Amino acid sequence: MTDRATRLSAFDIGCVVVGGILGVGIFFTPKQVAAAVDTKGQALAAWALGGLLAALGALVFAELSLRVPGHGGVFRYLEVAFGRGVAFVYGWANWLVIQAGAFGVVALVLVDHLQIALGAAAPWSPNARTALAALLMLGFTATNVFGLRTGKWLQNTLIVLKVLALLALVGVASCAVAEVPAVASPPPSGRSMPAMLAAALLPVLFATGGWQQGSFVAGAALQKRSVPLGILGGVLVVVVVYLLINHAFLS
What we know:
Layout: H1 10-21, H2 29-36, H3 40-67, H4 74-82, H5 84-117, H6 126-145, H7 148-175, H8 193-208, H9 226-250
């Protein structure tokens, strides 16, 4: 009989996907998107289009997870499609550059937020920030070394708290009433709609990338359908949260 505690359900994989997408990007990309367009509606349209592209990508990986089951994700798909050599190069690049770089950036941003949350009297030195970021990365890695049960519990808890925090921010923004001085609307930029959406989509796609993360742990799925359901469900949650939080920001 399968031990559910040592397997990943669709919810668990969905949390992996949400965690791979919903990160630091949503807190600085909305400003860049809004600056690239003329109206609030165009900004939301850019986020909706980015969400559609993310959903299409999720559909591709959901299908790949069914056709090529097991651990490995993109590595396995490349190996089946193009051979072991291409997969080998991607695997090393992913380990040494892609994931390592993203992990390092997120860890440094986490340190910056901890510095604010703890009310540091003075900015921490670059060496201290780097050392703390490295310790945090080792700490989160250690939770997975202790086993899948511990790793998924921590992952799911943090993701649920993150989504609830963003929804709380949406609620506060919806209820807030602020008196602001009247400001004349800026004149239209004169750019075409396709040109504005193209410029806005660059930061949107940065913030919506990461749905492939769920495929890397597909070998631990409780059921074969858990992977596609988790990937699609995770992307759906992110798209809804992104649209809500951007509506709150723009309002």
